[in-house]
Every structure is written in C-alpha cells, then in structure tokens.
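W.,

You were right to be curious about this one. When I first looked at the sequence I had no strong expectations either way, so I just let the prediction run and decided to look at it fresh. Below is the sequence, 326 residues in total, followed by the output.
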Amino acid sequence: MSKWIRILLVVILLGVLVWRLWPVPEKESPPADIIKPVTFMNPAGPTVIPLSGIAGGKVKGDVPIEIKYWKTTDEAIAALSSEKADFAVLPVTTAANIYASGIKISLAGVHEWKVFYLVAANEAGFDNWQSLKGQEVYVAVGKGTTVDLLLCSALGDAGLVPDQDVKFVYAPPQEIVALLKAGKAVFAALPEPFVTLAIADNKARIAADFQEYWGQINNSQPRIPIAGLFIKTAYLAAHPQESNDVIRQFNESIKWSDNHLDEALQINKDILPIPAPAMKASLQRTDFYFIPTNECRSEVETYLQKMQQLYPQGIKILPDEGFYMQ
C-alpha cells in the first residue's frame, strides 16, 4: 500500500471519528401549540350588549374569540352543524330542540333572565290576569314563542282559555308597537326593547311583569332562564381548559358591559336595532348576569318542562344529561 493511500485512509478515519464525536445541535423544539380562535355565534339584537366587553377588546383571555351575529336560528344551526362555530348564545328552548335534532351542545350557563312584559293602553283597566277576559291581546312574533307560552300559562292559571276567553293576535313586534301608538291595540305581550318603544309616548304602560308571575308560580326568584351560552359538546370534551377560558371571558364581558353601559352602546351602535337612548332605557327592565349550569339547572329543567306542557309541538323531547355541562 502506497504512502499516499495510507495517508488518505487515516484522513478518512479521522473524519469519521470527528463526525461521530462532534456534538450534534439539538433540533429546536416546535413552538407550543398556538391556541386557535373560536367562533362565537350571538343573536343580532339586544343580546349583543353582554358581549360588548369582548367585542370592544376590553375583556381578553388566552383564547381569541371571533364573534359572528346570527339573525335567524337557522344561521346558528348551520354554523354549529358544519363545525364553523363551537360557541353560541341561544334561547334555552331553541337549544333544547337543536340538541334533540342530533347537534350535541351543552349549556354552560344562563345569562338572560328578564325581558317579557304585558303592555296595556292607558285607558285599559287591568287588575289581574282575569282582566283580560273578552279582550284581544297582540303577541309578538307567533305561536309557541316564549312570551306566547307565558301568556297562555298565566291565563290558564287564572281560569281562562287562550283563544277562547281571550283572543290572540300574532304580529311582528314592530307592528304591534305601531298599533299601540295608533290606538288600534289595547293589550300586547312583548319583549324588550319593544316594551320601551311601546310606552315611550306615554300612551301605554306596563301592566304585568312575566318574570314576577313566573317566580310566583314556581316559588322562586322573579326570573326566567331565557337564554344562555352553549358549547359544542365535542369541543368541550377535547378542550376543557379553553372552554373554561371562553366562559370566563363571557362572564367578565357581561359584568364590564353592565358597568360601562354607554360605552357598550357605542361599541354596538351599528348592530343594535333601535337608537341608543331607547336601548339604554330598555336595559333597565332587562337582566343579564351569568349563572353557571350547576347553579341553575333545576330552574332550566322546570322551565323546559312547563314550556313542553303548554306547547308539546314546540319542545317534543326534553334534553337528557348531556345537555347540561357538568
């Protein structure tokens, strides 16, 4: 073996040795998983107010929240069923039907408790529910809505038969307000903010508070579990920490909005259906505060059972355990 070949072999061996002994730089650890934003569906109406803290960037958390507003429940259902949203504010009765349809959602808590009233023209006498015998009552939206069923319940407890002793006329709330103002309607069952619009010119007054009625018949607080925050059950199971962070932000946003009402109205000026002064007045008769499911489940169950009794075709199946966040 020639001298040059021996030298070449030595060089190769040294190279291999150096390569093996040379410290290999550690691969950089992949960055921690970036928390993806969640899509939060909310009705495009007065319930935008509780979300003002989040919408205005006043309340933040680990999970970025993208708010999208729905005008019909079909929009909310489509987003939830197509995996385009994991969180939604929904009426409790609507959510029960969505759950029964196979879209699994869980109630995180109720946040809307007070919004329904009976309005009467100033010249109309009203002492109690029996005062409505022989009268015509305009009811917002249509048959089977919450305010419709509450009115049916109140009349039934007073010994009156709806649509027999009392005539029901269903119409959009805006139309009912116009009829009251024109003196063409005497009684109306309405939600806020339309109650405020109806009584704004002092031609009508609030005759009864449906929340007080509900508290009396259930021996409970004068409140109704009207709407709440729902989470896709699959998301909740896979991301419990993130779910709790969104719930916390939602709760803090409600509190922020309550303490900064003028700013909240400004944040939502392009979404709210009525001028800010009227909206602000209506919020005096609207209660938003978050009660987690484990503290209000019995109220929700009582509410759904009563609504089903009054209108079985409205809630065909009462939700099971999976409907309630544990």
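Here's what jumped out at me. The chain has two domains: 38-113+226-323, 116-218. And, maybe more interesting for your project: The two ends are 81 Å apart (CA to CA).

Coffee later to discuss?

I.
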